[in-house]
Every structure is written in structure tokens, then in C-alpha cells.
Write a structure and sequence with these properties.
The chain has 259 residues and is α+β, with helices and mostly antiparallel strands. It has three domains: 58 residues, no CATH class; 100 residues, no CATH class; 60 residues, no CATH class. 46% of the residues lie in helices and 18% in strands. It is built from 13 helices and seven strands. The strands form two sheets. Strands 3, 4, 5 and 6 form a four-stranded antiparallel β-sheet that branches. A hairpin with a 4-residue loop joins strand 1 and strand 2. Helix 5 packs parallel to helix 8. It is globular. The N and C termini lie far apart (48 Å).
Length: 259
């Protein structure tokens, strides 16, 4: 694969920056372990977003995908990278401070972030998005929040909510790219290659019955479980994940009521 295959000649600015040496350096370091196809996708994302991989504004991460039975690449940036992409549109402004929700014991449950976008008619509109603690918190092997999330839970969850709001507001610019904060939880998924027992038909029926009236969410949830645990149906869910899934469903239903 040549440099020209990744950086077409008509894009002179990018081609002049990414000479063959830098091309190979990115492949060896920032995109270590990526296939040629994945690497081309990464370079395309760099060009599309204008983020600099050498400044760690954008990077490739390989993670095990249970559904694919192999490691796959995700393209990530930080929340500052999201803000930079949005700012370059000339139609972005920061929103008001994030809002937070708590459970009966004072535990953080959700964060709602706001961003502003100017539409073609010249008017500014406020867009919000909500991130739930159980869906994004990074945990240790025993299921406890990491020290960083324990100390800076509000900061981390508000970043996740802001990323959701920014991607909702600027889908063309941000689709296919995720922030570190959003993807942190996927790094703490338990090992699913062992022989952990599954929940069986009774508990699977309990899950299905609770979301039968929301087929779109039901499909999305099963897709997530397929990727994380290789579940072909809800009955394949590991027993130790049953409470977590119930909590995800509960948070989704609360979110729907808020909306």
C-alpha cells in the first residue's frame, strides 16, 4: 500500500504533511495492529475531521469484538477534539452548565449537557443529551467504579453527555468517531471467554417482557449484548450481568420519561 492510496493527489495539503516516513510512523505507533483497510479508514477520518494524530487529537484503538470474534478498530478522540471539530464549523457555541440527577442515596445517576448550534436561518438552537452512570462508568474487575470515576464522576459523566450532544448536533462531522470517555466502559467488560453460566429462559422472558413495548430499544440492547458477550438471545446473557442489564433498561425508561 502506498501513500498515494491513502492520501489522494488532489489533497495536496495533507499529502505534503504525510510523507512516507510519517505514514509508516503512524502505522507503527498510533495505528499499531490495524489492517490496511482500517488504516485507510483512520487516515480518511484524520482528513475529514482535520485532527492531528501526532498531537494525539485522534487515535485508533483495537478492542476484542465478541460478535466478530476478532479485534476491531474504533477511531477515538477526546472531548476537546469534539469541541474543535464543532468550532471549525462556525456554527457552534458552548451551552449552559451540565445538569445532574441523583438517586435516593445521593449517588450520581445521570448528567445532561447542552450545546448550541446556529441553523442556516441565523438562529441559535440549544440541543441537549443525557448520559446515564450505569451506561458509561468504567469499572474494575470486581465491578466497582475506578478510582478516577469515583473522584471525578461528575466531570467524566458530563463529558460523555456533552459528546452525545455534540454528535447529535453535528452528525455529519462526528459520525463514526467516539470520545475516550464514552468508550472507557468497554475496556472494563468482564472476560466472556470462560464458562460463566447464563440466565436461562425465565430471566430472559423477564427482560423481554419489560421492553416488549419498545422494539427499537429491544433490538439495540440485544445488539449491544451480542457485541459484549456474544449473546444470540437474552437467554445467553451471563448471570453476573443480569442486574446490570436490568439497570440499563430502568435508566432507558427513566430517560424516555424525562424526554
Amino acid at each position: 500500500m502506498t501513500l498515494q492510496a491513502v492520501c489522494p493527489t488532489q489533497d495536496k495539503a495533507v499529502e505534503s504533511q504525510l510523507d512516507q516516513t510519517k505514514f509508516e510512523l503512524i502505522k507503527r505507533t498510533i495505528c499499531k495492529g490495524t489492517t490496511d483497510d482500517e488504516f485507510q479508514l483512520f487516515i480518511h477520518a484524520c482528513k475529514r475531521t482535520g485532527l492531528d494524530p501526532f498531537m494525539r487529537q485522534i487515535f485508533a484503538v483495537k478492542r476484542w469484538d465478541s460478535a466478530e470474534r476478532r479485534e476491531v478498530m474504533t477511531i477515538q478522540t477526546g472531548i476537546d477534539g469534539y469541541r474543535l471539530i464543532a468550532d471549525r464549523t462556525g456554527r457552534y457555541a458552548p451551552g449552559r452548565d451540565a445538569e445532574f440527577g441523583y438517586d435516593a442515596h445521593g449517588g450520581l445517576r445521570w448528567a445532561k449537557a447542552y450545546v448550541k448550534k446556529m441553523t442556516p436561518d441565523g438562529h441559535w438552537h440549544e440541543i441537549s443529551a443525557t448520559a446515564f452512570w450505569t451506561e458509561y462508568v468504567q469499572t474494575t474487575k470486581d465491578g466497582r467504579p475506578t478510582v478516577f470515576w469515583m473522584k471525578k464522576g461528575h466531570v467524566m459523566l458530563s463529558k460523555c453527555a456533552e459528546a452525545l450532544a455534540l454528535r447529535k448536533t453535528f452528525p455529519a462531522e462526528l459520525s463514526g468517531i467516539y470520545t475516550q470517555e464514552e468508550m472507557a466502559q468497554t475496556m472494563s467488560l468482564p472476560d466472556t471467554k470462560g464458562d460463566s453460566q447464563t440466565i436461562g429462559s425465565d430471566k430472559a422472558y423477564e427482560i423481554e417482557r419489560s421492553i416488549d413495548n419498545d422494539p427499537e430499544f429491544k433490538t439495540q440492547l440485544l445488539t449491544r449484548l451480542q457485541r459484549a458477550f456474544g449473546c444470540k438471545s437474552f437467554s445467553d446473557l451471563p448471570q453476573d450481568q443480569f442486574k446490570n442489564v436490568k439497570k440499563v433498561i430502568e435508566n432507558h425508561q427513566i430517560k424516555e420519561k424525562i424526554a
